[in-house]
UniProtKB/TrEMBL annotation:
Pathway: Nitrogen metabolism; urea cycle; L-ornithine and urea from L-arginine: step 1/1
GO MF term set: arginase activity; manganese ion binding
UniProt EC number: 3.5.3.1
Protein name as annotated: Arginase
Gene3D superfamilies given in the database record: Ureohydrolase domain (3.40.800.10)
Enzyme class per UniProt: hydrolase
Keywords: Arginine metabolism, Hydrolase, Manganese, Metal-binding
Catalytic activity reported: L-arginine + H2O = urea + L-ornithine
Cofactor(s) annotated in UniProt: Mn(2+)
Length: 306
């Protein structure tokens, strides 16, 4: 049984990068659904650090291909500093989103921590979307469609260089799982950079077990696994509380298996829970499902397994 370090919950209540209002209420919905208590019941040491602060969402149209770039930078800098502070104390940060643009700050902090510790970072990006848009190809200017591109160095310097140096990640460090919506311009870009994408067709063809075996291949003691979990990864039939519902996502059992196999790897070091939008949810069921899946990520299983 893998033992986890102490856990810190960090709320980032903003929908600054999104196309719908409401993801700003995601952190509170996860708290109401009992995330801290569920993890504590597993014997884990959990502290809720409260919320980071950032600018109000002005809800303006895009400027030069980006909506709210200055505000997005401010929020991501706050997230980066909060996540870095927990990693420095050898704690496992869980970022409660908020929209998915905030993963830029979260993963930039994790990447820098891994470089300093001599660890190899692998990012599992659980999402319906590739999030590899740029200002040149984005249909909307919403930066929550750009975090993977920014982390790989494709984007505005304020975000690609958020950690001070070169891009936080190279494309071969990312495995994307559950993808089923890629914009036309993105398709060429993700192919050109060689992004490792396990889309829904591939999951249908070979099954979630094989997908996760491939995604988790060759992880060793020097590996740090960061999971960036966009709740729209899940099929909207079980998880309606998201701004961009795309039918045909993983069902409950597939999602559980995905989380359980990540837990079995013993390498989980940091986590984002993103894009939960309680304004679009039904009696907080999506938040409760997210909590259930996160319990599995931290080792809950039906039977005792070695």
């Amino acid at each position: 049984m893998h033992t986890f370090p102490p856990i810190s919950l960090i709320g980032a209540p903003t929908d600054i990068g999104a196309g719908h209002r409401g993801a700003s209420m995601g952190p509170e919905a996860l708290r109401v659904a009992g995330l801290a208590a569920a993890l504590a019941a597993r014997g884990l040491d959990v502290v809720d650090r409260g919320n980071v602060a950032g600018p109000f969402n002005p809800w303006l149209p895009p400027t030069d291909g980006y909506r709210h770039l200055g505000e997005v930078v401010a929020w991501n800098r706050a997230v980066m500093q909060a996540v870095a502070a927990e990693l420095a104390q050898e704690r496992l940060p869980i970022l409660l989103g908020g929209d998915h643009c905030l993963a830029i700050g979260s993963i930039t902090a994790v990447a820098r921590h891994c470089r300093e510790q001599g660890k190899h970072l692998t990012v599992l990006w659980l999402d319906a979307h590739a999030d590899f848009n740029t200002s040149a190809i984005t249909p909307s200017g919403n930066i929550h469609g750009m975090p993977v591109a920014c982390l790989c160095g494709f984007g505005p310097q304020e975000l690609t260089g958020l950690g001070g140096g070169a891009p936080a990640l190279s494309p071969e460090q990312i495995r994307q799982i559950g993808i089923r919506s890629v914009d036309a311009g993105e398709k060429k870009l993700v192919r050109d950079v060689g992004l490792d994408i396990y889309d829904m067709r591939y999951i249908d063809e070979v099954g979630m077990k094989r997908v996760m075996e491939e995604a988790l291949l060759n992880l060793g003691p020097r590996d740090h696994l960061h999971v960036s979990f966009d709740v729209d990864f899940l099929d909207p039939g079980i998880a309606p509380g998201v701004g961009t519902t795309i039918p045909g996502g993983p069902n409950y059992r597939e999602a559980q298996l995905c989380m359980e196999m990540i837990a079995d790897s013993g390498r989980l070091g940091s986590l984002d829970i993103m894009e939960l939008n309680p304004a679009l949810d039904v009696r907080n069921q999506t938040a409760m499902l997210a909590v259930d899946l996160v319990e599995s990520l931290f080792g809950k299983s039906t039977l005792m397994r070695d």
